[in-house]
Write a structure and sequence with these properties.
Layout lengths: L6 H11 L2 H7 L7 H12 L1 E2 L14 E3 L2 E3 L3 E3 L5 H4 L3 H12 L4 E2 L7 H7 L5 E4 L5 H13 L4 E5 L9 H6 L9 H7 L3 H8 L22 H8 L6 H11 L2 E7 L2 H10 L3 E4 L13 H12 L4 E4 L6 H9 L4 E4 L1 H32 L13 E2 L10
Parallel strand pairs: 4-11, 5-6, 6-7, 7-8, 8-9, 9-10, 10-11
Antiparallel strand pairs: 1-12, 2-3
The site of glyoxylic acid has 5 residues, from loops.
Length: 387
């Protein structure tokens, strides 16, 4: 058993154990991948202030996100095709999150269905909605999430149409994988993955297949999004969806101050500063660069979360110090899942927690709720001057 000490260790194992097309799907950004790269490299520009001779006993990372108690300010982000990284992946990740005490968000484009996940966990999870061009299907998804007891609806706003990820086209990404000479040669080397997949019935988009007809190729994410996602989605529609749901709502994919103000005006429970992990608009600024301007504009009106680029507990600490109430992690837990299933997700959460907790202590704090910008050293031109 390899010794896992950091998220990168899980990433290496994920790459070795999951089929190439699914590892590549997770590890891609759109087009040149500039935004994907900068999401992480911009975190590295921010430094932490070492403080000494401060009592660091009795520390806590407990807080609340969108009114929910969390063991640390982290939510598992919605990630498409998670059940292709490891058999029954969404169920495994949801179980690990529940045991750790952080929320799990199920993607519309998951392999395990809403009902499947609900049957296997005991706490309510969050559901992420992609808006469809067919209101009846959008409403049906909302009703299914309600019936399954989901506590929060996360509406993704930055993917009405899919940003191109070159590797997915070259690999012929599909769920389940289409059997070609190339994919068979790859799958033959991933025996762990194959055994797991043989043992489950969950190999297609569980929220879609069997719930809607007339899709050209239900296995093809790009075809599905092209056929069915709602190109006309606007703020009026967002308000309508919020009303259809009638519960807690988080808007994900806000990267601009003007959009943050519109979101705050709607009166939602939180917004997520995000560029979809660099998978949509290539050339957009990193999420961490946009965090402070957005917090300055709307932080007193709406809770602000951040995703895109979190790979360490130090990154989480930096985002909190810059005004986020919490973060979403995508790849950081998907590496763990692809490496070792539920155990790997737990490991990812433990790694991040330890890094965050010890770094917080070394910055002179005992309670994550008291961490502020004083712990940071931020380059003067960090946000940049853009005309
Ligand atoms: C969809 O959620 C994607 O980013 O692939």
């Amino acid at each position: 058993m390899p010794v896992i000490t950091c998220i990168d260790d899980l990433k290496r194992l994920h790459k070795k154990r999951a089929p190439k097309m699914f590892y590549d799907y997770a590890e891609s950004g759109s087009w040149t991948e500039q935004t994907f790269r900068e999401n992480t490299s911009d975190f590295e520009q921010i430094r932490l202030r070492q403080r000494v001779a401060v009592d660091m006993s009795n520390r806590t990372t407990k807080t609340q996100m969108a009114g929910q108690d969390v063991a640390m300010p982290v939510v598992l982000a919605p990630v498409g095709l998670t059940g292709m990284q490891y058999a029954d992946g969404e169920i495994k990740a949801a179980k690990a999150a529940e045991k750790f005490g952080v929320p799990f968000t199920l993607s519309t484009m998951s392999i395990c269905s809403i009902e499947d996940v609900a049957d296997n966990v005991s706490q309510p999870f969050w559901f992420q909605l992609y808006t469809m061009n067919d209101d009846a299907f959008t409403k049906q998804l909302i009703d299914r999430a309600k019936a399954a007891g989901c506590s929060t609806l996360v509406i993704t706003l930055d993917l009405q149409t899919l940003g191109q990820r070159h590797k997915d086209l070259k690999n012929g990404l599909s769920a389940p994988p289409k059997l070609t000479a190339k994919s068979i040669a790859d799958l033959a080397t991933r025996w762990r993955w194959g055994l797991g997949m043989l043992g489950t019935k969950r190999r297609m988009f569980g929220n879609i297949v069997g719930h809607v007809d007339g899709i050209k190729d239900p296995a093809d994410l790009a075809a599905w999004t092209g056929d069915r996602f709602d190109l006309t989605l606007d703020w009026e529609k967002v308000a309508k969806i919020r009303d259809w749901w009638g519960g807690k709502v988080i808007l994900k994919g806000i990267l601009d101050v003007e959009d943050a103000k519109k979101a705050a005006e709607l009166g939602v429970d939180a917004i997520v500063v995000s560029n979809h992990g660099g998978r949509q608009l290539d050339g957009a600024l990193s999420s961490i660069r946009m965090l402070r301007p957005i917090v300055a504009a709307v932080g007193d009106k709406v809770e602000v979360h951040l995703d895109s680029g979190i790979r360490t507990g130090q990154d989480i600490l930096k985002a909190i110090a810059m005004g986020a109430k919490g973060v979403m992690i995508g790849r950081a837990y998907i590496y763990g899942l692809g490496a070792m299933g539920e155990e790997g997700v737990t490991k990812a959460l433990e790694v991040l927690h330890k890094e965050m907790d010890v770094s917080m202590a070394l910055c002179g704090h005992r309670d994550i709720n008291n961490v502020d910008e004083n712990i940071l050293l931020v380059p003067e031109d960090f946000e940049g001057r853009w005309a």
